Amino acid sequence: MNDALTHVLLTGGTGFVGTHLIDRLLRGKTGSGTSSEGGRLLVSVLTRNPDDAVKQFTRQFSDLDVSISPLVTTDVRSLAASQRHGILCIDRLDQLSDLAAPEAVINLAGAGIADKRWSDSRKQVLRDSRIHTTEQLIGWLTTRDTRPRVLVSASAVGFYGAQGDRPVTDDTAPHPEFQHEMCADWEQAALQAEKLGIRVFIPRIAPVLGRSTRGKLEGFLKRLVPPFRFGLGGPIGDGQHWMPWIHVSDLCKLILTALEDERFSGPMLACAPDTRRNADFAKTLGATLHRPAILPLPAFALKLGFGEMSRLLLTGQQATPKAVEALGFEFDYPTLDKALKAVLD
Length: 345
Fold this sequence. Notes:
By secondary structure, the protein is α/β, with parallel strands linked by helices. It contains 12 helices and 15 strands.
């Protein structure tokens, strides 16, 4: 294949954040109207359903003229014969054996942590979808003669567990609980890539604010906004727990920055600097929607309905992203007011 080709491998590429990353990667190449600027870009997406992924990405880039739109395919040969940027959708890593090695890997795979009640079997799904997938990825990288320069592997702010009113920075000691244990094992699996000479950056990601590339609300706002629109929103429990967050645009910007900047290494908080208490978050959300935010959601009801998973809604971290800010990273949406207006206006 063309020596100028740049190759990025993504797991979790069909999800909320993954599709935004692919959009930024490829529209950055095609936005000037030329498909040759900076060399060809190949994004390989590891997914359980390659055919569905092809349909998804074909729709995502359907607004572009065919001369500059990426070729979306499951066929390595057709991609090799093309001169266009490409998205290769695969369900096995060995399908990449005949391609140039990826220069960067972005690992976002993981079942939705708030999608279902946390039964023992669901907890195992959450762990396996993160830890086993990461272990399999590292195992595959050990077989490659040429290895990527960098692995960006997701973690979550849940690494720190519930912290009450204690300020949380990157090196704050965690509170042991399920979220921490899962994230810690997830991070350790990714850090094994350092033994292969690969730089590893682990963003501990806060709940993400934003819309999908098709304009639909995603993340926790997808569930939170509808009751507020009907005037039924308000604080959760007593509203005093902290809610870290990050706008999807800033998260993508941070990940793409880390691909190029070697100073981004190891675990770092990926949250906006404007963490709010839940009651303040609810008030700001209501103001953005021009709706009241006075009806509390009782904690006992959440505990009854969601069991242990209710901790996602009733606990949090007063987090500050000191490490990334010390490296000069600038947030485009540093305040909650600005971020919510960008998403909801």
